Structure formats: C-alpha cells, structure tokens
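*** Fold description ***
***
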Amino acid sequence: MTHSGRPPGPGGQVVDGASTRERILRAAEELFAESGFEATPTSRIAERAGVPKGLVHYYFRRKPDLLAALVARLPDEPIETAHVVVTGDVAESLRRLVGELDERLGASPLLSHLLWREADTHEAVREALIHRFQRLVEQIRNVITAARPDIAVHADTDSAARLLALAVSYRHSVARHGEQPRPMARELTFLAEALARGAGTPASGAAR
C-alpha cells in the first residue's frame, strides 16, 4: 500500500483503486460466464483486466470472493407496483411487469448467465437465485392484488404468482443461450381470466 492509500501498480506507480477493482470484476464476470468458475484461473482474470495478478489477490483474497462480489452486484431493487399497475386490468398489469423484468435481464446478460451456470455448485449463488425468485413471487402477487383487490378474496393469487414466477424464471434461464424471451400475452391473459373466474382456493390469510 502506498502513502496515498491506493495499491501500487506495475513498477510501483499508484493506480485508481475503484477503477481497477471494477476492471477485475468485469473481467471475472466475462470469463466465468464464458468458461465457468472452476476453469478460470486468476491469472486469466488479471490478463483480461490488464492488471498484475497480485492486484487481483489484493482486492479479492480468494477466488470465491470474486464470485461473491459478482452476486452482490445483481440488481435487486423491486419494481414499483404503481409503475406497472393498470387498475382493473390484471393482464395488462402483468404484461408491464414482465416487460420491466425482461429489460432488467437485458441490462446484465453476462451476470445472469453466470449465476444460472454456477447455481448448482455454489451455495451463495443458489441462495441469491432463491432470494430473487421469492422477491419475484411477492412482486407478482402485489401487482395482481393492486390491479384487482377483490381477486384475493375468491381466487388463489399465491399459486398464480408462483406459477408466473416459475415461467418468468425459466424464460430468463434459457435466454442465456441466446434465445430472446417471447411475449407472454396469451399466457398472461389466460392467467388473469382464470383468477377473475375464481380459480383455486384463496390463502387462509386472504381478507373476506
């Protein structure tokens, strides 16, 4: 460490810590997505980032720390319910929500690819995906009940939210193979009509 508090670069010159860390993370994201976590040595990450290998270990003592940092970068801000809800129209409200979710996927395709790829072998990644799924179920349920508050009284909105969350998660998992998510207009209309007809049994906590 230099007197400036920044790590030394090649030849002892001071480097910008924030931009160096970002370059390392970006290189790790690309290489993990291309080759997998286990098959990517830190030397390749350093080469891709254009930094000495020692700087990779300066910022991330162990290679799993790189993966943990990438998981932490995953967008996790909920979509504002009011931003997508059309009062009285569940199908249109859900179409808007799914459109917002697809846009977020498009903003970080490499990171999404990486997380789906590594979920089977890394608990931290798996937990992050489970957390995302649970948040998605909650968002969908909130949109349904905001669009039609009466639906929760006579239909199973919990199961509907989980079913749609599973469908969206599947679409996003195959998008990593280059497939563009197709519109879900018919499916969302079907789901909205089923709820309007009182499909399923409402959760025991639903208001009556």
In short: The longest helix spans residues 123-147. Residues 10-72 form a domain with the Arc Repressor Mutant, subunit A fold (CATH 1.10.10.60). The chain has two domains: 10-72, 81-196. Confidence is low (pLDDT under 50) at residues 1-5, 10-14.
